[in-house]
């Protein structure tokens, strides 16, 4: 089940999954903005996956209403079980009801195929994030 959660609830998975061995903040600018949405995937009432949506524009994209997907992660124990996929489906559904035209993210190279399977495309050139590695800007147009 996918539910809206608080910024604070995302922190534990951000720390353990996205910041393991990485000395970068797990609290993001924009976490508490009014437009920001945090989603959690639950398995037997345990939080197993997270994603945050922020109203940020990419200058690589010309869509008027854009949201950025950030902090997308599932815990090790549930990898490959479809929780990540369900989170993206909910992201698309929520943004559709908000009349948002496009969702984009800075995708780690290891997650590239996951996003491609969910209909995202690469735009622009890859870039490197210190301590994490190669990233690609990826986006998906929200169907009407
Ligand atoms: C990327 C991530 C969120 C995917 O979550 P998940 O719960 O494992 O994804 P799902 O089980 O819903 O997988 C959906 C599909 O993508 C595939 N997939 C998932 N992760 C993949 C990966 N890293 N590389 C290639 N394919 C992947 C699955 O095999 C599945 O394919 P299928 O539909 O053909 O069966 C998860 O692996 C993760 O948290 N990784 C570490 C953190 C990270 O890199 N986050 C992304 C930051 S940009």
Short description:
This protein is α+β, with helices and mostly antiparallel strands and 144 residues long.
Mind explaining what this structure looks like?
The protein has 144 residues and is α+β, with helices and mostly antiparallel strands. It has a single domain, classed as Aminopeptidase. Helices cover 23% and strands 38% of the residues. The chain has three helices and seven strands. The chain is globular. This is N-acetyltransferase domain-containing protein. InterPro entries: Acyl_CoA_acyltransferase, GNAT_dom. Pfam families: Acetyltransf_10.
Rg over C-alpha atoms, rounded to the nearest angstrom: 14 Å
The count of domains is 1
Low-confidence stretches: none
**Helix share of residues?**
10-25%
Compute the number of helices. 3
Strands across the major sheet, in which order?
A: 1-2-3-4-5-7-6
CATH T-level fold name: Aminopeptidase
Q: How would the global form be characterised?
A: globular
What does the average pLDDT come to? Answer: 97
Instruction: Kindly provide the name of the CATH class.
Output: Alpha Beta
In CATH, the architecture is: 3-Layer(aba) Sandwich
Class computed from helices, strands and strand pairing: alpha+beta
What hetero molecules are in the model?
Answer: coenzyme A
CATH superfamily: Gcn5-related N-acetyltransferase (GNAT)
Strand percentage, roughly?
A: 35-45%
Q: Give the termini separation.
A: 24 Å
Q: What's the count of strands?
A: 7
Quaternary state of this entry equals single chain
SSE topology string: EHEEEHEHEE
Biggest pleated sheet: 7 strands, mixed
